[in-house]
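Aim 2, interim progress: modelling of the iron/sulfur cluster-bound target.
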Amino acid sequence: MIYVHVPFCHRKCTYCAFYSKPVVSGLGDRSEAKPPEGQWPVAGYVDALLTEMEKRKREQAHPIKTVYFGGGTPSILPISQLQRIVDGLRRCFDLSWVAEMTLEANPEDLTSDYLTALRQLGFNRLSIGVQSLDDRVLRMLNRRHTARQAIDAVENAHAAGFENISVDFIYGIIDGIGLIGTKDLLEKVTHVSAYALTVEPGTALAVQVEQGRVVLPDEDEVVRQYHAINQSLKDAGFVQYEVSNYARPGYESKHNSRYWDRTPYLGLGPGAHSFDGVRRRWNNPDGTVGEEMLTEADAYNELLMTSLRTVRGLSLDRVPEGQKERLQRLMQPYIDCGWIVRSGNCYAPTAEGILHADGMASALFVS
Ligand code: SF4
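Predicted structure of the complex, ligand included:
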């Protein structure tokens, strides 16, 4: 599988700690007419990406089944630049096995013409950053779109032939607001990612909270919103398959599910990570590359962390022989308190337990 990182955003959302750069001022309009080809501030990025693809094309030994453009805001790219990237991928890799090709997008970018062109480029899945259908919340987060634009984006995507549409929501922002007002929108999508707002150091939100300009809901309220969201999504026909991810049956994200299965992947672009089964490698924004060989302990700890975040849970068959007895002993208290259910060889988190997945995994780590 291939991940392409697009490190540009129109402006910074208050909560975001991802690496991204604003597009050059005055050139934020994606119109193909301006700026002239070659002067687009991201053209240099695309050149570098094509060079990286060419250099690293032999690193991807496994059949490529998914391609994911993430960011940043990939939908900031004009179609002409996306076309160059997709052509480059087709030249360097065999994409004939690709079943899912996703583009992360912000609602304000998804005009009918743009969506039709994305379909023609081969994208068959969209992940749209809706975040909220409350304009107060959107303004508070410094998002550029309105609730109306988010609804229009999903409708335009349908009209352009996208059947597989994921929307992102954030909760835990204002008391009492979970997924309120989203019922009509949910009927038109196949997948939902719902994340609790976290305050990352160094973000505008961290400063606002520190200065008391923003007061976020307490933990009990966040947990209440989580359960309310679970219920709304269940009522709307979605099944939770990971701590933050819900899908209509058959529409689970193939790309993300493979990360959780620890399938090797190739990440291209500044800030992208790659994994070949034993080694992690990451591109730093300054052009340098970091690398780390995973020890047996690292690999086992990653297995614990990713498995316990999924409803499928952890199969004892994947646990190294020498760890099985310890794992069974340490899992018992979680079974006793109702956070884990054991069924056959599998330890699966309950709806309550999945909220504590990271804490349980850390307590099971080996060094
Ligand atoms: S659009 Fe996404 S990547 Fe860009 S600043 Fe907002 S949250 Fe971060």
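The first strand starts at residue 2 and ends at 6. The chain is about 35% helix and 20% strand.
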